[in-house]
Amino acid sequence: MANTYKLIILSPEREFYTGEVSELIVGSTEGAIGILANHMPLVTTLRPSISEIVEKDGNKLKAFTSSGILEVKDNEVTVLCDACEWPEEIDKKRAEEALKRAEKRLDQKAGVDVKRAELALARALARMKV
Question: Would you call 110 exposed, middle or buried from its count of C-beta atoms within 10 A (0-12, 13-18, 19+)?
Answer without folding.
Answer: exposed
